[in-house]
Write a structure and sequence with these properties.
The structure is a single chain. The chain is of the alpha/beta class and 265 residues long. The strands form 2 sheets. A 6-stranded parallel beta sheet has the order 3-2-1-7-8-9, with helices on both faces. It has a 3-stranded antiparallel beta sheet with strand order 5-4-6. Strand 4 and strand 5 form a beta hairpin. The longest helix is centred in the first third of the chain and has 16 residues. The chain is globular, with a radius of gyration of 19 Å. Bound molecules: adenosine-5-diphosphoribose.
Length: 265
């Protein structure tokens, strides 16, 4: 999906300046990112124009129950994906971080961005170099034990036996990605809640803000008087709570925002 945005109007430049001022003046800035941040890396979003669920329909909401009922079949499907999941995994396998990911890394290195909470499972924030990162929906390159919550790289796991077993506790292993109906692993959820409680400003980039608990964090920050800065070509469920909205692709607007922050330091 390509966005055709002409040269920025003066009011758009003004909003970018105001957003940069917000970030520099804030005490504790965090970011919440979603599928839209990876669209310019070639990964389709889920909802809205070109969304996987828009095209193929929402997946069943009982993914985790299905996994627990028959983990062997779930793994066979995971290792031989079909339909929309095949499209998603193929896009993930060839994707590279884009300037939007890189701008967030630079804001972290400047000490402005304290943490990034991502709903994306595509590993692109890590690949770009984000270190203060919480992957609330998991990471598609990792395997997690549903018993002891230990996480492993794929290479560490023997898939000869399905479902694969945890080398530490022999518990059943699952992709680290959080399935619909699965509780968010408590270690990650606690980390996200802590960061959201500390924050007085949040960059909300590339998310429709429709999936909870992730969508609750910006609302809580807003309710405590914090600032929300939205980066999204379209309005989302969070727009009404945002102090400023940067309307356009994150891969173009986040680097612009970064430059204006830099010029104020
Ligand atoms: N830059 C910024 N935002 C963009 C871009 C772009 N280049 N392209 C699209 N968007 C916006 C869309 O306007 C939309 O608001 O990104 C958002 C993507 O929304 P969703 O597809 O709903 O993705 P997300 O919010 O991450 O979904 C949350 O839902 O399906 C589950 O587990 C999945 O983590 C996912 C969760």
């Amino acid at each position: 999906m390509t966005f055709v945005f002409g040269p920025m109007e003066s009011w758009e430049l003004e909003v970018l300046d105001q957003a940069a001022e917000c970030l520099v003046r804030a005490r504790y800035v965090i970011a919440l990112t979603g599928a839209g941040l990876s669209v310019e890396s070639g990964i389709p979003p889920f909802r809205g124009p070109g969304g996987l669920w828009t095209k193929h329909g929402e997946p069943p909401m009982d993914g985790y129950e299905r996994f627990l009922r028959d983990p062997k079949k779930a793994w066979e499907d995971r290792l031989n994906p079909a339909g929309p999941m095949r499209e998603l995994w193929e896009a993930l396998n060839s994707a590279r971080p884009n300037p939007g990911h890189e701008a967030l890394v630079a804001l972290e290195e400047l000490g402005i961005l304290k943490c990034t909470i991502t709903q994306n499972v595509d590993n692109l924030h890590r690949t770009a170099g984000s270190t203060r990162l919480l992957e609330i929906h998991g990471n598609a390159t990792l395997i997690r034990c549903i018993n002891c919550v230990a996480r492993y790289e794929r290479e560490e796991i023997d898939f000869a036996e399905l479902p694969p077993r945890c080398p530490r506790c022999r518990g059943i292993l699952k992709s680290d990605t959080v399935s619909f109906g699965e509780p968010i692993p408590s270690d990650v959820l606690a980390g996200c809640s802590d960061e959201a409680e500390r924050a007085d400003c949040m960059i909300v980039a590339g998310t429709s803000a429709t999936v909870y608990p992730a969508a609750q964090f910006p609302i809580s920050i807003h309710e405590r008087g914090g600032d929300l800065l939205e980066v999204n070509p379209y309005e989302s469920e969070i727009t009404a709570f945002c102090r400023l909205a940067l309307r356009g692709p994150a891969g173009e607007l986040l680097p612009e925002l970064l430059e204006r922050v830099r010029s104020r330091l």
